[in-house]
Amino acid sequence: MALLERSEWYDIARATNWSPRYVTEGDLFPGDLADPYHLPTTAWEAYDEPYKVSYREYVKVQREKDAGVYSVKAALHRSNYYNLAGPEWMGILKLHYGAIPLTEYAACQLQGQNTRFGRAGSMRNMATFGMLDEMRHSQLQLFFPHELLARDRQFDWAHEAHHTKNWLIIGGRHCFDDVMMTRDAVTNSIMTSFIFETGFTNLQMVGLAADAESVGDFTFANLITSVQSDEARHAQLGIPLIDMMVKHGKTAEVQYAVDVGFWRLWRVFAVLTGIPMDYYIPLDKRHMSFKEFMHEWVIRQFERQLKDLGLERPWYWDIFLNDIEVHHHIQQGGVWSYRPTMWWHPVAGVGPAEREWLDRKYPGWNASFGHYWDTIIDSLLAGREDLTQQKVFPPICNICQIPIANRPGPPWKARAFQLDFEGRRYHFCTPVCRWIFESDPERYKQHESLVDMLVFGRFDPPTPETVLRYMGIGVVSEGGRDSNNYEWIEAYRGKHGHAAKGQVSPLSDCSLGFKGGRKLFILSRFEGDGHVKTVEVDTDFTMDELARYCAQFSVGHHVPDQPGRVLRVRRTTSHDDAPVFARTMRFDDCQPRQMDSFDIFFADN
Amino acid sequence: MMANQSDATRNNSVGPVLRSGEIADAVIQALEEDNPGKEFVIQDHLAYVRIETENECIVRRETLERALGRPFQMPELEVNLTSFSGRIETTDTTMRFYLEKRL
What we know:
The complex is a heterodimer of chains A (605) and B (103). In chain A, 52% of the residues lie in helices and 6% in strands. Chain A is an alpha+beta fold. Among the domains of chain A are: 54-315, Ribonucleotide Reductase, subunit A, CATH 1.10.620.20; 506-603, Ubiquitin-like (UB roll) (Roll), CATH 3.10.20. The longest helix of chain A has 31 residues, at 185-215. The radius of gyration of chain A is 26 Å and the shape is globular. Chain B has one domain (12-98): Alpha-Beta Complex (Phenol Hydroxylase P2 Protein), CATH 3.90.56. Chain B is built from two helices and seven strands. With 103 residues, chain B is of the alpha+beta class. The two termini of chain B are 19 Å apart. Chain B is globular and about 40 Å long. Classes of the chains: A alpha+beta (605), B alpha+beta (103).
């Protein structure tokens, strides 16, 4: 029997709007779920999806996709690949499977919302396919790691991660709750379908596939590119909406949604994708740097599309370009330094050849991040692994939920951007996250980061062990350790400026006890350290004692000592120009408040 | 290439990004046939092939069928179409990639 061509019946099939008789239009499509921008009904009637598919075609094509994915998996099932794959690649798989599958379920709920609350029948139609797509993605990406569970308990995080309060998972969840789960059908389509699925998912699902193919994991490469083929279709849901919004004078509203969504997704994806691409993939298998992938997919392809839709680059474009050079590098240091909090075994990835590559791809890497790792290497060579495990927490950004950090010095960039709002102090990684908060404080103000919880006394007892347990470490599986058991440091023993026995400064060990004053959390902004640190101090300390106390959490951890020089203290200001406190001054006399930020820096006297 | 990163959005490239294989090869052949006079830049990234040209290109079912040597329904292209640059327009017999504005 001959079938009609799709175009002959498609317009009738998708015209599923009707005039409600028992409820009002507003009851049927409440603004906060459907369209708070009040686009006219005529605009919605003109919604025309660019990537058309019928249900019959959808089922046929999806069946073919699944057949492809499962047959490659079955064909390679008996291969020895995962027995031979190095710990670096297994780390990437664990990171991916912990972060992604349940986010796909969240996306499924988002598509469910659009299936019900899209104002155009054709939009609801597209969203229905999108919903089925996302269900497929979560099930595939739960099924594949399940096979790996027998060899490694950490793969259990594929299913468990999003049910824990792990810091990185909170970061992802906070972002996706914001862009996917708590918006109306128009805004979530802009933030998720447009920005996320035409911009960032390409990095993890197609860019990373090139690396996967290069290391020989064809099962994974085939899986993630198949997933992205669904995204390429249902991501198109957002384009006609943006066209409509711009046409009806809502350009500023779309631009705001783009600016918020783009930054939020960037901050998460740089950690998820940037770290594996630039540090975990074995050097000889590395296809391109993360920056080059960003260039190809986000700057050349996605940002170009922004212009075509009549939108501008986000206002923070220069900050963003700088962040591409910095953010994932310092978070790589943080992930490795806080490795017991991760659900995989973090890879250092900084052997001499890797560093040469990093400095070539990111000019200036060795002069900043290189010093950071040199300090870690010196401590490891000296047998002081304890100095490479952090005892205090960094402050966490109240928007992106990622530790506040920046390029290690010199020059010295890390700082928290703070805001006092309704009696509470908030901390941000950048002016962009602070702007997002200030543009809609009602949305964000109640959430407490892990460090807020520590400072507000929510952990009992307030020890790292309590926090680790809270995060699910030791419950779902053991936490991370160095993936390579520190063998990589041998390339530095007695070479590349490192003494064979390493080097430890007396500043790394501190016997100073509390003196009986008030206990106060402060932000220690230690000279050269890429991480700001949250340190509980005694207000009866002198400034010298305060500096000495804070030094133990930075020197030998992430910054070297500067022998012969002394430590001084001043308040943190935007131009590093606050008066320096006298060394013998009692800390309390500067009237410090909870979570005030102080610079601790080296001076000649 | 990296030095003028902020200028990189100034391009008019459009075209499909396909999973490497038989379909990608056929699409390249069909694109060249269906868009006479256009130059295509083809980048092979192992897992994917990026095919780009300036401003607009179209691929037709009958050309693709000839290149493959078998019947082909346009929606089947989706199995291998992991991404694309520019905008897309689909009909029963064509898939078109384009940009509205030229930079």
